[in-house]
Give the backbone structure.
Amino acid sequence: MAGISIDLLLASLMVAATPILFAALGEMIVEKSGVLNLGVEGMMIVGAICGFATAVETGSPTLGFVGAALGGAGLSLVFAFLTQGLLSNQVATGLALTLFGLGFSALIGQGYVGIKPPATPSLDLGSLSDLPFVGRVLFSHDPLVYLGLAMTAAIWAFLRFTRAGLILRAVGESHDAAHALGYKVVRIRTAAILFGGAMAGVGGAYLSLVRVPQWTEGMTAGAGWIALALVVFGAWRPGRVALGAYLFGGITVLQLNLQAAGVAVPVALLSISPYLVTILVLVVMSSDRRRVAMNAPASLGRVFHAAA
Amino acid sequence: MTRPTLLTLEGLTKAYPGVVANDDVRFSIGEGEIHALLGENGAGKSTLVKMIYGLVKPDKGAMTLRGAPYAPDRPSAARQAGVAMVFQHFSLFEALDVAENIALGMENPPKRRDLAARIRDVSHDYGLPLDPSRLVGELSAGERQRVEIVRCLLQNPKLLIMDEPTSVLTPQEVEILFATLRKLAAEGTAILYISHKLDEIRALCDAATVLRRGRVVGDCIPRDTSARDMAELMVGSVLHVPERRAATPGDVALELRGLDLPAATPFGTSLRDVSLSVRTGAILGVGGVAGNGQDELLAVLSGETLAPPGTLFVDGDDIGALPPPARRHLGVLAAPEERLGHAAAPDMSLVENALLTGQVREGLAPRGLIDWGATRAFADRIIAAFDVRTPGNHVAARALSGGNLQKFVIGREILQSPRVLVVNQPTWGVDAAAAAAIRQALIDLAEGGAAVVVISQDLDELMELADDFAALNGGRLSAPRPTAGLTMDEIGLMMGGAHDMEVAHAAQ
């Protein structure tokens, strides 16, 4: 265990958590509006390659993230059109979106394998970054890590204090009632889906531009599915979703460090441990059926057809 | 009428594919008038009020409000013009609290703290107590209706539309609601009151317009018109009243002993210490406001929910652990309230739906293979015996009108000659003639020696059908009492009285 340094571990935990935090927050907003989009994985990987390609072509990581958000949102627009416009089944459409995204990203990414993207600089926090221990763990990251935390707080405040947030929750709770009161259910849900797509795109680009940083086919490797699970784990609350993302990030980093330190546990077992823990926690969390059902948006996944 | 006119409808017409919902509807409502809109289910009342509230655009015709043209293209436009509506269903959010629900129905809601204060003021003035911070999912049906009414009142409406407001209330709550409405009308608010309960309309309304098949077929002054005349105007024919002969009850067939069952869903009802017994040849009526455990009681009797050991007996045998098919084998059948999706599979044909519950007792699938010939014959027998109007037995359940499908699902169970039959809301949304036929069939079934449990929110129906009456209130069942000689007041108290409502202060 001597090879593991606590401050490095904690610092890389924050980096590991950020991509799934973005994707999970986006998906939470989508689900709060009553839509289940299982295409997070597809939107993440499309965001990863769009961000990567944009950053390489323009030389600007910032533009890369903007491109990633547009790419993710663009793919989610397909989902919005199919499910909200043509009333297709959300589960099947979401799965198709993931398959499409994986193939599509591989196609675009053919010319980008083995290229190094422009580096994303750390945020200059001056003397804060020089603090012993705390400086390395908390204050020497790139801006996206802090943006993820800021988004958590902003989404919490949006859902709790704003009228738009209330309307979003109302649409997810009962689309029939919202329609009867004159709210535009389809329009609100489409906006939520686009936001979810953009967030998933940014999360994907964080993988290809910062965490790894390079482009390989299928590099999201299930991060989108983990983000979906985190929404349930967090019981549709932003604070708990963030907690879940950091927990998962922590276990991922720890298992990598344990492997590097040569702990006498089979590598395969270590590699699956983050997923095992996620499943375990989900099972424990969902065992209280009443509590889960209480927080889940009541119209989640149901097709809305405006009756006359 | 000396009142100035508030709203005039001129020739409103709205057609849907295959049906004209409203055809050249014209009438007017005066300021401060309580105007009844009468009609059977499917007469076009809902479509008409949706046009007034801006949810549906008329194909033809025009409306004027206080002399100015009025054509709301969405509900918020109607609300700005001073038209508010209390819905029968679908306009509250269970997981949101009272204040949030009210804010969603307002154009420019004030800040949460001010809103809470205004909710308390208005609900106090009109005798409709409400706690702004409670979750709507935890409220009783009567309390939910208060939320809707307060939401409307906060906007000082000129016209308040109420769609079947009393179907979920106890008789005492109805009295209090009427006091509130009279106070509002005295303050100058016009009320468009939709109902098919004639006694209520005679007690409350100044004028009435009767709709039948989308057309105005007459109007009347309810106080000066008998309920029977209004009913015949509504139905267009003479009503048949079900008859019952005095039956001699036999042995106890169905018995529940001290059943406790926790709720399975967050806003479900837990059954608490429920005991009942029904003899062969008798009908037990279970009344109560919706959401007090009716669905749960039906589920536990039908076998969808299993009962703990020692609580549920049929002919003395504990059947609590048996699933629905095994219970059907013993002759315990059930017809749940929700027709589409619970009693019948919407996209399957009538033949397939006949198979779904009839398979066990009618032997429609010997050795696991479906005998389609016998199944079709069974479906045809139901269609013939219960006058189900359908182009044929191949039609999907969803394509039938509510009343016809109801006749089918009730008939399907009755024709299997059950020993115990449990029905929930057997005539909900069914026109008067079909309702009378269903009630007669239930009476005949009991006379033939079955034990029947009828769960319903229609008290008149229960008085007409049942030998004994019990009420569900918060998951508890009151002790059954013979229906003969029971007064509405006593029934209301069994149903939980007025809960915590108080009469509007001005009306005291």
About this structure: Residues 500-508 of chain B have pLDDT under 50 and may be disordered.
